[in-house]
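Cross-posting from the modeling subforum.

Setting up a comparison between two proteins and wanted a second pair of eyes on the formatting. Protein 1 (sequence, then structure tokens):
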Amino acid sequence: MRIEVQIDGMGDFLGIRAPFDGALEALRLEGIEGPLSFAEMARARIAAGEASELCTTGAFVREAVVHTETGPTYYVRNSPLLDIERIRSVIHFHNMLEAVQGTERDHSGFGEIYFGDILEKSLFDSIAAYAVEDAGKVPWERRVLTVPQTKSFRIPVERFDKEELTLWLFDGPLKARAYGEFLAKSGIRESPVWLVEWLVPDPARKPFIRQLFFGALKFGSSINGGRRLGFDDGLMGGVWVAKGQ
């Protein structure tokens, strides 16, 4: 399903209600490479207002999160999962695994997308290398941001222009402060940063990746790196794009 929203001063925005791979395919048919970035989505939300569908529903954005068992956590500017052929390979892998094991996918979506298993290990090595190369740059200029946390935490909205993660996500202090003020006016005092937390640690667990999800305002406008790629999430599994870009 398609949803179109017109925002004064910014033009038309298109929302795709579809499973993640279906949303990417729909974008390809529109001649659009991928969804809005986290910063672009935040700017569109401010312009559209808290009652708009951009604010009342969450969606996947352009960035991704790479989890490692003992840390660090990597935030990646351009997710490798936005490659339609790669994501089809991921889906095919899990479909075959379910057929062999005789299991059914639960409501949480696909299993983990491991490097050195479903995705090539060299891709993870490149991500880790970019993080080291960019470490001396200001956060918003980095291709990959490293954060020490491996467990979920919260960021107060008044600190959006001070924390490295929100500076990276919102593309600098001015945009970070603007979105923090927007949330404060909407009655939101802090945003949760969701990460994957295993009940049973496993030192042998390989690094894995999840697409970053920008939560709806009713969920604190969460920065959700713990959401799996579901198979039928409605708009919650969809994306937003600027038409004509």
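Protein 2 (same layout):
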Amino acid sequence: MIVIFDKKPKNPDFCDMEKFALIDINKIRAWFFDKKIERLIKKAKRLNKITEHKYIVLYVFGKARIYKKADLKRLIRMRVFKKGITIQDLEKSAIFVTA
């Protein structure tokens, strides 16, 4: 976005192009991450209402994903997770758990 001023603004700090042109990338990434989390939570609630299964939103391998609680229990039994990990540990570290 290019902004052209006809007159010099009253506030000289506003015209400082370094401050004006820089975009805080971390804020944008955080905003997209928040929107994705909101979308996943909404989807988990909708699936819970339809199927009546419990769903957990977890941050795994650098991505937020939805898992069925029964599938996580099955993965624990198959020793996919570290030895000693329980479903309660996963629920504690979860972003969202459906009721």
